[in-house]
Amino acid sequence: MLHHTPDTKAAFQQLARLVRPGGQFAVWVYGTDLKASGSELLRPLTSRLPRQFMLQASRIAIPMYYIHKIPLIGRATSVMLPTSLEADPTWRWLDTFDWYTPRFQWKHAVTEVVSWFEDAGFSGLRIGEFPVSVSGRKPTRVA
Questions:
Q1: pLDDT tens-digit series, residues 59-101
Q2: Are residues 30 and 66 in the same domain?
Q3: The sheet that has 24-28: what strands, in order across it?
Q4: Residue 100 shares a structural domain with residue 111
């Protein structure tokens, strides 16, 4: 959820300070490789609507999946009303909710997130399989 805060890096820095020496810290944030979506054009409005309304409205993603899969028609509906194409209906619904409701939705490069870990003194950095996911270990204190 760091990418849904006003400042992803500042949120990372606050959490990194809480990691005990020798402890591990891992994050996953939205990557810059995510395509810009029509939902980004609507989010200034939809992020101000009541959450319960948007949770229910996001259910449209469940049947829209099948419409989006129809050649030609699906291309048009995907542009007019973008919804998640997750295979699992529940994830599709929640993913679509996540596209339209957050006030903040920052995207970051893996190199940027790696630099946050390095600046915070973490070592043994690992880039995860899921973009953009990074983990590291906070050094133990020297006596």
A1: 999 999 999 999 999 988 988 888 999 999 999 999 999 989 9
A2: no
A3: 24-28, 133-137, 123-127
A4: no
Are residue 58 and residue 112 in the same domain, yes or no?
no
Find out whether 56 and 96 touch, Cβ atoms under 8 Å.
Answer: no
Q: Are residues 96 and 143 in the same domain?
A: no
The band of 36, judged by pLDDT with boundaries at 50, 70 and 90, is low
Residues 69 and 119 in one domain: no
Number of domains in the chain: 2
What's this model's pTM, rounded to 2 decimal places? 0.80
Query: How many CA atoms, within 13 angstroms, populate the side-chain half-sphere of residue 104?
Result: 13
Residue 5 phi/psi, 5° resolution?
A: -95, 165
**For the chain, what percentages of helix, strand and coil (3-state, to nearest 5) are there?**
50, 10, 40
